[in-house]
Design goal:
This protein is an alpha/beta fold. Helix content is 44%, strand content 14%. The strands form three sheets. Strands 2-9-8-7-6-3-4-5 form an eight-stranded mixed beta sheet, sandwiched between helices. It has a four-stranded antiparallel beta sheet with strand order 10-11-14-13, with helices on one face. A two-stranded parallel sheet has the order 1-12.
Amino acid sequence: MPPAPLARSEKSLRTTDSPITYYVQKALETPALISFAAGLVDEGSFPVAEIAATVAEIMADPVSARAALQYGSTQGDPKLRQQVLKHVCAADGVKPAELNLTTADVCITTGSQQLLYILGEVLFDPGDIVIAEAPSYFVYHSLLQSHGARVLTVPTDDDGMKMDALESLLEELKRTGELSRVKVIYTVDYFQNPTGLTLSVERRKKLVELARKFSTDHRIIILEDAAYRELRYTGPDLPSVKRFDPTNEFVVYTGTFSKPCAPGLKTGYAIMPPDVMEALLHLKGSHDFGSGNLAQHVAARLMESGAYARHVETLQAMYRNKRDVMLAAFEKEFRDVPGASWTVPAGGFYVWLTLEGIDTGPNGSLVAAALEAGVLYVPGEFGHVADEEGSLPTNHCRICFGVATPELIPEGIRRLRKAVGVVMAKEREEKLAAAV
């Protein structure tokens, strides 16, 4: 007799696997593929010697060793919270007091992904609204689906999310009586995943002004996902959106040690308003009683000794070279492709390729042709939300230069160009056949 069916919760039934899982698995199962898919960190970049020395230093002292191996607090190690606050405020050129901040406003999390999830538990009821960039970080979209939140999107240009379009959307929601359901405006404001674009300084300031303006019967929170901030290759470091929230009311700033250091530390952080912190810690305590304590002690020492800052400089040089190699390869291989264009990111991991008239989606012709040619990319449609008719843009590719070596990047772009050529030739044949 078969077992009785499992009675799953509504949240469990809403939760599905991330669309990128297939592409990660495909890359792992096919070593000959050149993968521009998953946004993973270059393994050769890990600060192995620095972390080994730091762990040895902690363990050499019985006092520090016991402290690191004991449970920590739900909010996180005080030394690391102090280092994080100092680090973020120094990047913004302010003192913590200028933004009404203390270490009490900093929380250490199990990667920034945990912060994204628990903040959703704090704020969302099914049917609540999150406003995001179009396109945006698709893993966050999956998380929002789990919470039952609706995603409404705002178009972007070279300066990031368009503030006039955001204001128009908020006005429309106010007119239709749905403004009360808007809980979060989400932005990946530095070298965005998936486009590589950055929110301009003027728009950062305007974003806070709009959140304040439309926070009439409740406060609208801006979730600033600054995961890629430190991976900057050209131009000055822009002030955070948090920098324009001097009363510490509207912006939750989240960062991570995964991209600029080592994802195995699984350590992230967030700076947020006190009432958000209080509610978040209540839920975080139910999740873990505190993120991994040893990793926090390692991160704190890396920051305190200056090893972290030195490693970030090394990463910037390494990824800058990869980006430049990829952009040169695009210029060589795609300059003759009608309707082809790509972003030139000032940092981060991603180039956003647009191919007018070619279906780049998961069921489109280019995915199969690219696999046949030996290269993998992420369909850009994953970063979009379907419109009222259920349609999605299907002519974009997210191309990640995080893992591929500088030697393999040109060959990968050459293979992608070959796949595009195969698709274009097939389409020409089909048009000729139809015309006969």
